[in-house]
Amino acid sequence: MSFFFNSISNSRNKSFITDGNSSYNYKDINDKINKLKKDYKIEGLILNITKNTIDFLVGYLYFFEISKPQLLIDQQTGIKSILQLIKRFKPNYLFIPNNIKDEFNYKKIFELKQYVLLKTNFNEIKLNRNIAFLMPTSGSTGEQKFAKISFNNIKSNTENIIKYLKLNNNDCTITTLQPSYSYGMSILNTHILAKSSIILTDKTLVQKEFWQLYKKFPITNFNGVPILYEFIIKFGLKNFNKNNLKFLTSAGGALDRKTLIEIVKFCEENNIKYYSMYGQTEASPRISYLLYPEFKNKIGSIGKVIPGGSLSIKNDEIIYKGRNIFGGYSNGFKDLKTFKKKNILKTGDIGYQDNDGFIFITGRSKRIAKLFGVRLNLDLIENSLKNKSIKCAIISIKNKVIIFHTNKTINKKIFKYLFEEFKILKTNVEFRYIKEIPKTKNNKTNYGELEKKN
Fold this sequence. Notes:
- This protein is an alpha/beta fold.
- It contains 12 helices and 26 strands.
- The N and C termini lie far apart (50 Å).
């Protein structure tokens, strides 16, 4: 494929720093990949358990360089779930951390310091040559589908993101997300292609070691999902206040309005750009962005479409067109022969476009309920209550709206508010206290889990 070749072949700058303070440049990575290409011939599907380490990165780029498809799996996935996925997809190889290799009775092909490549006993199956990645979608491991992402999808999206973020070899980021998550993978891809530096760590924001690394190196950009920014707001934005920081990005869901306003205010006061981004795994993954504080009067919009793409609204649903749209879902090895190229993606999000052409999301098409003939946008109601500091998740069962909340007491005025704003009668609302709102692995509300409680 050689997509990353020019980036990883010649730069001698110390561009990768690991938790143990080991440093590597792009030439080091390229030399490791060339040795693997010379010594081994790999054919077939690779199940790749992701970690933010240098050995994972070497394997990841090696498999991409030789155009072999990768099924990317989160490192927190349990052995039982991994075995289920092996049964479903019949991969020809497992590229896994050394500490779990004894769980699998397969032949070792090669071993790095932290990772090992194992050869399974499955016969090689016919794979569509377009498939670069099988990316997990929302849902539990046993239920989730995998989006088929092509090499061209990745190429298009990665190049366009670099354009609008203006990434270059002077930039430096620190890993906050797993590469098995499409946004986490995208952050790696864009920084590698731009020859930027990456501080590789599996430490989380709640660990002091993460912030020690952050403060030690010249981080120019920080990338996160809503739950990370909510944590940062809670424990202090001052951790971000350093001269090197040029911009922040957020994706993977909308920040609540209060948090978003605080982030925008902080960025404006410190001359930092903030990119609020919208995307889906099916779009490899980024679709649009809004730059704050330049457009702070458009709080909540998904902003401008990425270069080369277009957005429109049809029957209230947001439609995206672009070269980065996936080739269908995969449930197992039998559907890896096909890749149906698409130019249109029905996002499943509903919304509207204002007079200036900015698009706003109001909910999910699957989250529209009818109560005695009245059409209700459950996401709109949920977000409205969250703006009143009620942490909640809403589902609809038959002719009732069920509001799961973490507040031990609910003010009676809420019933009046729901009627005045949404015409929901008190008799049609049921509040249920829950200690914690269940989340998927992508930190989105797990409505399926809530429905099981009924």
